[in-house]
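User: Please fill in residues for this 52-position structure.
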């Protein structure tokens, strides 16, 4: 399943694709609404801290 949050901003998609697969999956499964690159970075860092 492709996340829809990065359809509107190429920088969000580019950053998302650099994340480890486990973090990508956790973000998708979480259902968190992400609208900006900053939000994605913040969420990704939280998941990285918990699972890496």
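Assistant: Residues filled in for all 52 positions:
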């Amino acid at each position: 399943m492709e996340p829809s949050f990065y359809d509107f901003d190429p920088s969000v998609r580019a950053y998302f694709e650099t994340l480890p697969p486990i973090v990508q999956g956790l973000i998708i499964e979480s259902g968190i609404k992400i609208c900006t690159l900053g939000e994605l970075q913040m969420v990704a860092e939280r998941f990285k801290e918990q699972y890496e």
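For context: The mean pLDDT is 88.
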